């Protein structure tokens, strides 16, 4: 798993999770690194990064 996205808040986290779930991308929500605040990080498999990026771009274009 590689770091894919750093959500700005819980609403952003929920939005990205929904996009990944709908697109069939497996992901993991990791705890923030020490000293990095409270925002968690979304990780995906390295081979899924291009598809995950495409899904996020599509969702941003719709919204």
Topology, please?
Blueprint: E1 2-5, H1 10-22, E2 27-30, E3 41-44, H2 49-62
Antiparallel strand pairs: 1-3, 2-3
Rg, Å, rounded: 11 Å
Shape summary: globular
- Please tell me the overall pLDDT: 91
The SSE string, one letter per element, is EHEEH
Q: Helix content range of the residues, please?
A: 40-55%
Count of individual beta strands? 3
Classify the beta-strand content into a percent band. 15-25%
| Largest sheet, strands/sense/barrel | 3 strands, antiparallel
Sheet/helix structural class: alpha+beta
How many angstroms separate the termini? 28 Å
Q: Spans with pLDDT under 50 lasting ≥5 residues? A: none
Number of helices: 2
Spatial order of strands in the largest sheet: 1-3-2
Describe this protein's structure.
The radius of gyration is 11 Å and the shape is globular. It has a three-stranded antiparallel beta sheet, with helices on one face. The longest helix has 14 residues, at 49-62. 43% of the residues lie in helices and 19% in strands. It has 63 residues and is of the alpha+beta class. The protein contains two helices and three strands.
Could you write a compact summary of the structure shown?
The protein is α+β, with helices and mostly antiparallel strands and 63 residues long.
């Amino acid at each position: 798993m590689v770091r894919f996205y750093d959500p700005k808040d819980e609403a952003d986290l929920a939005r990205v999770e929904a996009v990944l779930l709908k697109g069939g991308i497996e992901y993991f929500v990791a705890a923030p690194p020490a000293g990095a605040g409270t925002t968690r990080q979304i990780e995906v498999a390295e081979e899924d990064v291009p598809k995950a990026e495409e899904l996020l771009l599509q969702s941003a274009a719709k919204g």
